[in-house]
Design goal:
This protein is an all-alpha fold. The protein has a domain of about 60 residues: 434 Repressor (Amino-terminal Domain) (Orthogonal Bundle), CATH 1.10.260. The chain starts with 13 loop residues before the first helix and ends in a 5-residue tail after the last helix. About 50% of the residues lie in helices and about 0% in strands.
Length: about 100
C-alpha cells in the first residue's frame, strides 16, 4: 500500500517542486530561489497559491539552473500527463470569438 504523503501518490502540487529545488540547491527560501532563477518573487508566490499556472519557460529555467531534466521537474510537481493538448480557443482573436450572428 502506498503512503499518501509520497510524491507518487499525490496529485499536482507546484509547492513540492519549489521545495525540492530549494532543498537540492541548498537555498534558504523562495527569495534565494527567485534570485537563482532570475524571476520576480511575486511569480513564485502566485504559482504557490495557484493563482498562476506553471509556465514552460519557468520549467526550462529551472532545468538550466538545477541540472534536473524537464521530466524530473514535472515528476516532482506531480504532473503525470503523457500527452499535451493545445486548445485553439486561447489563440483566437476577440473578433473571432464573439462574432455576431447574421
Amino acid at each position: 500500500m502506498t503512503d499518501p504523503q509520497t510524491p507518487e501518490a499525490s496529485s499536482y502540487d507546484p509547492n513540492r517542486l519549489f521545495d525540492a529545488l530549494i532543498d537540492r540547491m541548498h537555498l534558504k527560501n523562495d527569495a534565494q530561489l527567485c534570485r537563482e532563477l532570475n524571476v520576480e518573487p511575486p511569480l513564485v508566490s502566485k504559482i504557490r497559491h495557484r493563482r498562476l499556472p506553471m509556465g514552460g519557460s519557468l520549467l526550462i529555467r529551472m532545468h538550466e539552473v538545477s541540472g534536473l531534466t524537464i521530466a524530473e521537474l514535472r515528476h516532482l510537481m506531480g504532473d503525470r500527463r503523457q500527452k499535451y493538448r493545445i486548445s485553439a480557443a486561447p489563440y483566437k482573436s476577440k473578433s473571432q470569438q464573439t462574432r455576431p450572428s447574421a
